[in-house]
Amino acid sequence: MAQYEELSIDKGTDITLQLELEDTSGNPKNLTNYTVAGKIKKTYNSKDSDATVFTTEIQAPQTDGVVNLTLTNAQTDALKAGRYVYDVEISFVDSDANTVVERVLEGTIQVTPSVT
Predict the structure, then answer these.
(1) Tens of pLDDT, residues 30-70
(2) Distance CA 35, CA 28 (A)
(3) Best CA proximity match to 14, nearest among 102, 60, 64, 76
(4) Residue 54 burial (CB < 10 Å; 0-12/13-18/19+)?
(5) For residues 9 and 76, is the Cβ–Cβ distance under 8 A?
(6) CA nearest 84: which of 113, 114, 108?
(7) N or C, which terminus of the chain has less Cβ within 10 Å?
(8) At 57, which helix (H) or strand (E)?
(9) Burial track 62-99 (b if 16+ CB lie within 10 A, e otherwise)
(10) 27: how many CB neighbours lie within 10 A of its CB?
């Protein structure tokens, strides 16, 4: 089950979120051979074409379980002030060639307006 977090970001700023993922024993999750994806949408039913996509990076060494999620100032500036929903998923291909997806984080993001 994904962790739920309410976030707030300032419109027009660069944002980097760092996730430290753990396995069920509380140890850093080994993310070798994993990929990461994350999106922000106005509502859960919004079109994928309207989503803002996080740039994702699994930090080296991959065995430390650290993921960086980034939005540029241009991306946050394009968002209208208000409430959004988001999630982050990790995935890998198992030995039977099946893609296994795990949602690790989800919640809401409040985009606050800027004056400058």
Answers:
(1) 999 999 999 999 999 999 899 999 999 999 999 999 999 99
(2) 16
(3) 76
(4) buried
(5) yes
(6) 108
(7) C
(8) strand 55-58
(9) beebbbebebeeebbeebeeeebbbbbbbeeeeeeeee
(10) 10
pLDDT of 83-98, one tens digit each?
A: 999 999 999 999 999 9
100 has pLDDT over 80? yes
Conformational region of residue 73, where left means phi above 0, alpha means psi within -120 to 50, and beta covers everything else: alpha
The CA-based dihedral angle spanning residues 105, 111, 112, 115, taken in that order and rounded to the nearest 10 degrees? 130
CB 40 within 8 Å of CB 79: yes
| pLDDT for position 51 | 96
Distance CA 84, CA 28 (A): 29
Question: In this structure, what are the phi and psi dihedrals at residue 4, rounded to the nearest 5 degrees?
Answer: -105, 125
